[in-house]
Design a protein that fits this description.
9 helices; mainly alpha
Length: about 210
């Protein structure tokens, strides 16, 4: 029985790692492509992402961590109404916090970057470039959090493969858009591509779960 449990654990665990790591893979792709742009482009994306990660970490990861054991319990007890109710409450909380946070960070992006980073070799022009990337990331913030929540709904049903499949196609979307937008918007185009691919990821997960009537 222990061998069977161990195999089940790794069967569920490994795809979950890949599915949750797609955002970081997208960011890695962005960094590699940004290395071909003018000096400082990697730093602009990195600092913008660090600020955008704050609400993602506080809300997205916290919500998804709290949801998983609760949803898993309801699924095993076959309490579908509880699953739907808990999911709806978490999604409402996600939008209630992430949308104002997104617009709030967008509104003060330049002032925030200037306050936190402008010193030494990081100049006003660098702050302006970084705030442009942060502005693009901001509009993807609700999607970044949604992906965390929607993926957990799949995980609670021991379905760790579907988020990986969807994340793989989202990564392809990101790569294609990167190659298109980098020549038009430079480092900001890379941030826009990540935002669009994250919304693609979130929408595909939502449609899949809706089809399953979760």
């Amino acid at each position: 029985k222990k061998d069977k449990d161990t195999k089940t654990f790794f069967r569920l665990f490994l795809p979950a790692i890949l599915g949750n790591g797609v955002y970081q893979l997208n960011l890695l792709i962005d960094m590699i492509l940004a290395s071909g742009l003018k000096d400082g482009s990697i730093s602009y994306l990195y600092y913008a992402d660090r600020i955008n990660q704050l609400p993602l970490g506080v809300l997205g990861i916290s919500l998804s961590t709290a949801m998983l054991p609760l949803l898993s319990k309801f699924v095993k007890e076959k309490k579908k109404n509880k699953v739907v109710e808990t999911t709806n409450e978490c999604l409402q909380l996600c939008f209630f916090i992430s949308i104002p946070a997104s617009f709030g960070i967008f509104a003060i992006s330049y002032d925030l970057i200037e306050f936190l980073f402008v010193r030494g070799e990081f100049f006003i022009q660098d702050a302006r470039m970084t705030s442009q990337a942060l502005g693009a990331f901001c509009f993807g913030l609700p999607a970044f959090i949604l992906v965390k929540i929607l993926a957990v709904i799949c995980f609670s049903r021991e379905d760790t493969k579907t988020p990986v499949y969807i994340a793989f196609f989202a990564m392809l979307v990101n790569l294609v858009l990167n190659l298109i937008l980098i020549d038009i918007l430079f480092h900001v185009g890379l941030a826009v591509a990540t935002t669009i691919s994250s919304w693609f990821n979130a929408i595909m997960l939502y449609l899949y779960l809706k089809k399953r009537k979760v």
